[in-house]
Amino acid sequence: MTARIVRTLAAVLTSAGTLVFGQDTALLQDERNTVEVFRTAGPGVVHVEARAAAETKFEKRVIEAGTASGFFVDGDGRVLTNAHVIAGRNEIDVVLGSGRRLSARLLGTAPQLDLALLQVDVPPGELHPLRLGDSMSLQVGQKVLAIGNPLGLHDTLTVGVVSALNRSVPGTAVELRDALIQTDAAINPGNSGGPLLSSAGEVVGVNTLGTDAQSLGFAIPIHLARRVIADLIEMGHAYRPQLGFDGIELSPSLARLFGLPLERGYLVEEVLPRSPAALAGLQSGDRIVVTGDRVYAFGGDIITAVNGQAIAGASDIARLLLEARPGELLRLEVHRAGARHEVVIPLERMRMF
Question: Average pLDDT of the chain?
Answer without folding.
Answer: 88
